[in-house]
Amino acid sequence: MHHKEKHAFEPKIIAFVCTWCTYAGADLAGTSRLQYPANVRVLKFPCTGRIDPVFILKAFQQGADGVLVSGCHPGDCHYIAGNFHARRRFAAFRKLLEFVGVDLGRLQFSWVSAAEGGKWVEMVTDLTERVRGMGPMQEFKELALEEQWSGAIDTPELQEAYDSI
Amino acid sequence: MTNTIDTSIYAAITEAIQGEARRILSEGHVSAVVGYAAARRKGSAQPVVITDAVRAEELIFSAACVNNLAVYLTKAKKEIPKTGKIGIVVKGCDLKALVGLMGESQLKREELYLIGVPCAGVLASTAQPAQELTGDTIAPKCRECDAHLPQECDFVPDRQPATPELAGKYRAEIARLEAMTPAERWAYWKEQFKKCIKCYACRQVCPFCFCEQCLCDRNKPQMVETTPRPAGNTAWHIVRAMHLAGRCAGCAECERVCPMDIPLNLLNRKMAKELKELYDYEAGFQVREKGPLAMYDEKDDQSFIK
Fold this sequence. Notes:
heterodimer; A: alpha/beta; four-stranded parallel β-sheet; flat; B: alpha/beta; 9 helices
């Protein structure tokens, strides 16, 4: 029997997956009765090329502690090149997120084919455990809780500008 | 550092621009010229559209000519009667925006008559328009300018700009931020974005923000919160930087018009730097049909993908 562990913090993982490869791979994991953490919420997209970076932002804002984006291996795209375009977009987006101070450990990209039920399990388990170790994603949640801009003059530049009026 | 920058050529450039505008308008090469004219406060300048050759004498060029006029040819271009070519006065940095717009099929080269300006730099702030151009008052973008002399224009006054050697502010600031921990960077940007009042001036002034409907204005589904609160602000600025990645020509108009002094061009410069490193792409020097994020190479780096 499986030994069930109770954790104080259960991370929420949002997975944006391509319907042709990773979704089928996750389905295979299910039909193969492979066990993986139930922390992942899967959202199905026609292609990784359809996944807009704002979806990832939105996921973090809505309380995701980790995000997984997964699609077809290069060369296997149902739409020929959707994943190649996604690869560039996400390479750039990662750099931007890193620059504004998001820890990239919470964001994972992967290629999981329809035959790789095992790899799907591995990806989800790895990310869940890593995010569990990192703790809850607080940054975006804190932003959402902050009050409306108060008009307070709280930087030296603003104070200087105000004084010179 | 109060080293004065030599702007003595601007008077001769003004004269040359006036002469050329008068010629092309009276000979009928163009139906209008978009340029700068003196504004009401002494020393200040404002954009102007001239359709009559006799008004060509209104045109000027000075260190207060900070606007990027390219923006008038995108959002407003539908209101400009399509009566012929449009003449436009461009600094090197503004030309980069036009080149980008041509690549994105927003403009055609043959619809434009480019009057290039050899430019030594413009003022950072036009709050005191009559001030002298020095190492302290020059716009940050001009410190790192790589386009003092615009290329491939229809007319360029025969002058050499004095190109001052100044330390790059963006480069230094990017390096400073990159050296921080993610938490420190988050704290920095949180402070910056917190100031945002969602006036969208950065979007309105940007030549590349020409979407008929902005993603950030849509509410079904709402992708980016429209509130001037920290959550919506952060999302807005991240989306903005992402949408300009590989396209931004670095005219820094977003940063100039920001009433809250958010260093917006810093994000744009950072993305430009990353795309240069990743895909060896630099925006604005030649008309290219596809930007780095609109194309791909099978051999692109994928070390970040498992």
